[in-house]
Amino acid sequence: MRLAKPLFLLAALGTQHVAAQKGCCSAWFKAPEGAIVKDFGSITYTPAFPKGKGVHFIWSGLENRNGSFVFQTVLASASGEGTGNKTWTAAIGDYHEFKSNPTRRGDSFGNELLLGDDDEPNGHMVGEWVVQPGAEGKAMGDEGQNNTATIDINGKDPLTNFIFEIELQQGATWNFGPQTWTRIFMEVNSTDTTWCTKPTLGQHKFKYSMSDPHIEVGEGSDSSMCIIDYLTFDAP
Q: Is there a contact between 57 and 18 (Cβ–Cβ < 8 Å)?
């Protein structure tokens, strides 16, 4: 029996080449020992464009225990200082390949990363995202957009970590205000109900707030699903 996910409108999903963390802030939820990720989804919103130099990444994704592989959905700022690009890009993928679309301030960016689906075996992760325009995008005549990506995880260590992160590169700073993920769901193949009580923070401590997690185990299921209404990175 599959657990029912909370209903939400998927936002952006793409594939983005993002290097390992260079600075700032991350929050992790780790599957119980011996368990793996089955499903992961959330919604976030495109913030105002950052001031100053550098490259900014706002992402959520899945990683294996040793950190050698990640599958993520990303909001990325300009591709480098001096490019003149003032548009965030929504994307999905792993470290090596990506699919991406432009997005504007206030757009919703929803995504789901699923271990297999009706058409794919468990040796694949299937990602889907949808961007829906906010007030600024609607005023510009933007329409909703979506993208999908499938990656082969055969031969790779199982994905076990759920990650939310603001990543800063090339001297960038977190100066665009709080960032919130909403309607979060995280599913693992374990009936343990203690693994999502609170996140583990990365090496850079920061201020965050989070709704009380709710965890469900379906009748006759071998899986548990953690549901969190919101997780906000408040300030560095």
A: yes
- Give 10-residue mean pLDDT values along the chain (236 residues): 35 32 83 92 94 89 86 77 62 65 89 73 77 91 85 82 94 93 96 92 93 90 93 96
pTM for the predicted model, two decimal places: 0.84
156, 64 contact by CB (below 8 A): yes
Which tokens go with 124? 């694949």
Q: What is the pLDDT of residue 53?
A: 84
Task: Look at the block and give the residue holding tokens 């599958």.
Answer: 71
pLDDT of residue 117: 57
Q: Which residue spans within 133-194 are E strands per DSSP? A: 145-152, 159-169, 179-188
142-148, long-range: CB < 8 A, 24+ apart: 142/104, 142/107, 145/12, 145/101, 146/10, 146/12, 146/13, 147/12, 147/13, 147/14, 147/15, 147/92, 147/99, 147/100, 147/101, 148/13, 148/92, 148/99
CB 81 within 8 A of CB 54: yes
Q: Are 55 and 77 in contact (CB under 8 A)?
A: yes
